[in-house]
Amino acid sequence: MKKLTVLSIVAATLLLVGCNESSTGAEAKASTEKKVEAPAAEAKTEATEAKKCGEGKCGGDKKSAATEAKEAAATAVEKTKEAVTQKATEVKEAVAEKATAATAAVATAATAAVEKTKEAASAVADKATDAVAAATGPDGKALFAKCAGCHGADGKTKALGKSGIIAGQPAADLETKIHGYKAGTLNTAGMGALMKGQVGALSDEDIKAVAGYISGL
């Protein structure tokens, strides 16, 4: 009887110990799993947050360093473009001013050159006119034709045996004498009336031309 009682006590004790060990093992396992899962979950959360920060989604309105660098670069580019545009405008205005000044100087020089050319052309035209007038003026030889009857074709005959030889006399002296005969103020050797009739129709240009011809005989 005592042996049976002792065995019963021992069996109960073993059962209690086994149950306690089983319970303790389960708790230990659960505790271990919790300890493992907690860091894993925390690591997963941290990874997610890191990914969001990389995409610029963390920290409210905070931006990533890359985004800030990009915006700073864009700002720098805009400022550079503005500076270049302003400088180009200044250069353009300076060039325009110089071009205007150069154009004005060229126009002034051109005007002066034109005026000088006009003056030179006018002088040449006057000389040409004089030359043409001399070339196309009265023909002294033709005018002398009616004088040749008395003075001879060479101007060396004494008219009616009274006048002097007129060939070779100075043109100025001949002009003065002819003008005197035309005006009726000259009557050399009684030839005044006859000469007035001969030269009365001559113009000043005719007298100059015939005097020049006689002087050259």
Strand content: under 5%
CATH topology of the domain at 140-215: Cytochrome Bc1 Complex, Chain D, domain 2
**Cα end-to-end separation:** 203 Å
The H/E string reads HHHHHHH
Describe the sheet with the most strands.
none
CATH C-level category of the domain at 140-215: Mainly Alpha
- Fraction of residues in H or I helices: over 70%
Helix-and-strand structural type: mainly alpha
Shape: rod-shaped
Number of helices: 7
Regions with little confidence, pLDDT below 50 for 5+ residues: 16-25
Strand element count: 0
**Based on the structure given, which CATH architecture of the domain at 140-215 is correct?**
Orthogonal Bundle
Mean pLDDT across the residues is 77
At the fourth level of CATH, the homologous superfamily of the domain at 140-215 is Cytochrome c-like domain
> Which value, in Å, is the CA radius of gyration?
69 Å
Key terms:
217 residues; mainly alpha; Cytochrome Bc1 Complex, Chain D, domain 2
How would you explain this protein's 3D organization?
The chain is mostly helical and 217 residues long. Among the domains are: 63-136; 140-215, Orthogonal Bundle (Cytochrome Bc1 Complex, Chain D, domain 2), CATH 1.10.760. Helices cover 77% and strands 0% of the residues. The chain has seven helices and no strands. It has helices at residues 2-54, 65-136, 140-144, 148-151, 171-183, 192-199, 204-215. Helix 5 crosses helix 6 and helix 5 crosses helix 7 (204-215). The longest helix has 72 residues, at 65-136.
